[in-house]
Amino acid sequence: MKLSKEFYNGVIIFIGIALYFLLMEALHLSNVYFLRLFNIVFVYYGVNKTLKSNFAAGKTNFADNAISALLTALFGVFLSISGLVAYIYAKGGDDYIKTLSDTLLFVGSPSVMTYNISLLFEGIVSAVIVTFSLMLFWKKKYPSD
């Protein structure tokens, strides 16, 4: 069974983000909020890899490549959020969320699902931003209409 390049690169995004956050947790740096911003590097890498693969295969339709790039980013986001839900429940569920929400901008005490749904929306917005920015970067490689 051959996986689509979008799903494969989405898995690469997930593995990169998961290893990055596990490393931050092991080094006790998970409370340093600005280090969390670097996970965008893995999303850029996976989406750029998809676009590079499409271009190398001769696929130069701008709209098709935009959809391919967005699917890659969304696969990475959904897999990462799913992995985070599993990790949070493995670490204690709502009790573990209380330690996480202290370092983020959550008011009160969010539940596991509230926490992850808000991160899902943030991830979807990030996926769209990454897709648009990389499509602007790659636009010069596509024939104009």
Automatic annotation (TrEMBL):
The chain crosses the membrane at residues 7-24, 30-47, 67-90, 115-138. Keywords: Membrane, Transmembrane, Transmembrane helix. It comes from the Bacteria. This is DUF4199 domain-containing protein. The keyword Transmembrane helix applies.
